[in-house]
Amino acid sequence: MTNQSRIDTLKEIVGRPTRKIEFPKNSKGEPVYTSEFFGENVFDLQQMGMSLPKPAYASFLKQMRGRQALDKPTADAIAHAARIWAMDRGATHFTHWFQPQTGTTAEKHDAFLSLKSSFTPNGEQVSAIDAFSGSQLLQAEPDASSFPSGGMRTTFEARGYTVWDTTSPMFIQEGPHGTSVLYIPSVFISYNGDALDEKTVLLRSTSQIAKTACELLSLIEPVPQGAQPKTSHVYTTLGTEQEYFLIDRALYAQRPDLKHTGRTLVGNLPPKHQQMEDHYFGRVPSKVMATMAETELELIRLGVPIKTRHNEVAPQQFELAPIFEEATRAVDHNLLTMDVLAKVAHKNKLKVLFHEKPFKGINGSGKHCNWSMSTDRGENLLDPTVKPETNYRFLLFLVAVLRGVQQHSGLLRASIASSSNDHRLGAQEAPPGIVSAFLGEHLTEVLDSIEESRPVKNFSVPTIQSIKLGGTVLDVKVATLPAIARDLTDRNRTSPFAFTGNKFEFRAVGSKQSPAFPVTVLNAAVAAALQEIAAALRAEMGDKPYPSDADKLTVIKRYIKLTKSVRFEGNGYSQEWVEEAERRGLLNINNCPEAFAQLIEPQNAEMLTKQGIFTASELQARHLIMNERYAKDIIVEAQTLRTMLASQILPAVYEYRGQLAQTVSLLKDIEGESDSPELATIKSLTPVLKSLQEAIVELDASLKKMHHAGDDPVEEAKIANRVVVPAMEKARAQADKLEELTADKFYPIPHYSELLWF
């Protein structure tokens, strides 16, 4: 048996032409600037203003700002305008686009086409019309029992509702044959109003942090009596750096593990992978560049402000990143980006892998969430400015973030826990499971100086004048260059939560997951800390109408001391940090079931319910859903590995060994030799085959233990982690040895060297 399909695929890949598309041009055939067609497929406020009667538009703006409910005439007017706009661009259907707790988005398409009956003397006349009502815009009804609900909905209680999120604009996506679909961003709730999705709780958390931030600002920003507060609204901003792999789709189709689980369950690294450090920021391969460019074209039309693209560290690993936006919009745009990237890759005969660790031994992928808070005046509340030591507003918000992370580090760890992210965290390419915050040398000195009541040490920002080399001065014509500015903080890639100039980068978020839940948890934790600090300020200022600078400084100093344990500037990968973190009382959670338990830990649960982010039943349901998802992920992986070993790898090795045995027998008959190289190969294969067969038996036994757990998702998840995962690793170790020993023409699935270097 030779694996001819794998060989044929490799030959086809070499000669495959790159897909070409046309970027927009004007009537003169000249390129159109991206700013001119940015958001052309979005029914945004500007488009609404042009399409709606002025009273309807004004009414909608009031509703969107939370000042009144959306009445039926306004909803009907918006629906009519949206339908005309969408159908003029080829739309035939509409859909409520929502984010169930499945790790992806969901949609059900309904046609604008409807039938209208009228009665005449000659009987009923039926005519076709295009229609879209306000009620259809505002809500739809998917089957709630078919999505994860954690027991809140049973099979016979099927009703659930998707409801239009008016803060996120509608958009169209192009479908097949020149048609399009109108997408309506929505929340997903049960018949009883429980949140069944990721977005409802995100919206609650953004509302809560806006409220608590404004309350603190009203304390520290005095205004004349009768005047309006300087800040009437605060919103969180988010920028999501999305890492991903691209591999050839034909090779992907020959890997059952990639198809079913998103990662390779067997496979060895090629001689050259990322150890040369030549892929990061290197030249983008032409096939990949074509995919990137087409993806960006679609995203620009969809109003996604995509900004950056580059090679990442591992071979065939890449990254794209947008400009910062309001957090809920940024989450929608990240999910849309993943969707568009997958579709465009498919057109280019590639497959995008969002799994956090698709290949063993090289870097995995993250989704770095750059998070901050801004006012309606455009001020970044986490901007340290030139003298952070006297910027008390910045310092109060900074220590609030640190306090939130310190108090609810376990909850933040739970928010990024998944079976896939477990492979990446702490693996010398991603932050460890210990949640700490990095501030950098300058800010650390600022906080230390305040704590110790002393002046800040002088930090000079040097400019490069020359480079000394070998005792001589190397002239680099620096006089022709501008001054080189240095940021206040360096970067620490080992920190899960690092301050990077005017924002925090939550680096531990996994590439495959929606950023909604981690941002929800972060918002909630910081909102609780803002309330705590506002209360401390009130207590300090007593009967004064506003706290003095001394009052602010007293509170700042107190929280600098309280949050010192969560600040860490060193190497998060070191064993010394593990030991130091334990001495500081920080949690070191290294598996999913332990992380999930943090959701219902009393301190965390009380904070989330008190803030109004979750109800007690919603929180309990999410805990069960996360455990159930983890257990199912592991079962699918184990069964996929079992099938690949039994039906592909073992038969291939048996055939190879059989052919070697025939050769040994023939040589013995001809030459009388009994100690040939072929026999030595058989002797090296045989013990590994036996070990693999034993490992398969052990894997089967581990799966039986899971089945005996009954219907308890928590117990299933624990068994999956303690028993099934080690059994899979043991089987893989033997299978990978066989890959090294088996002749290439017999090996049935594409190697890493083929997947990573097409």
From TrEMBL:
<dbReference type="InterPro" id="IPR014746">
    <property type="entry name" value="Gln_synth/guanido_kin_cat_dom"/>
</dbReference>
<dbReference type="InterPro" id="IPR027303">
    <property type="entry name" value="Gln_synth_gly_rich_site"/>
</dbReference>
<dbReference type="GO" id="GO:0006542">
    <property type="term" value="P:glutamine biosynthetic process"/>
</dbReference>
<dbReference type="GO" id="GO:0004356">
    <property type="term" value="F:glutamine synthetase activity"/>
</dbReference>
<dbReference type="InterPro" id="IPR040577">
    <property type="entry name" value="Gln-synt_C"/>
</dbReference>
<dbReference type="Pfam" id="PF12437">
    <property type="entry name" value="GSIII_N"/>
</dbReference>
<dbReference type="InterPro" id="IPR052725">
    <property type="entry name" value="GS_Type-3"/>
</dbReference>
<dbReference type="InterPro" id="IPR008147">
    <property type="entry name" value="Gln_synt_N"/>
</dbReference>
<feature type="domain" description="GS catalytic">
    <location>
        <begin position="198"/>
        <end position="649"/>
    </location>
</feature>
<feature type="domain" description="GS beta-grasp">
    <location>
        <begin position="92"/>
        <end position="193"/>
    </location>
</feature>
<dbReference type="InterPro" id="IPR008146">
    <property type="entry name" value="Gln_synth_cat_dom"/>
</dbReference>
<dbReference type="Pfam" id="PF18318">
    <property type="entry name" value="Gln-synt_C-ter"/>
</dbReference>
<dbReference type="Pfam" id="PF00120">
    <property type="entry name" value="Gln-synt_C"/>
</dbReference>
<dbReference type="InterPro" id="IPR022147">
    <property type="entry name" value="GSIII_N"/>
</dbReference>
<comment type="similarity">
    <text>Belongs to the glutamine synthetase family.</text>
</comment>
<protein>
    <recommendedName>
        <fullName>Glutamine synthetase</fullName>
    </recommendedName>
</protein>
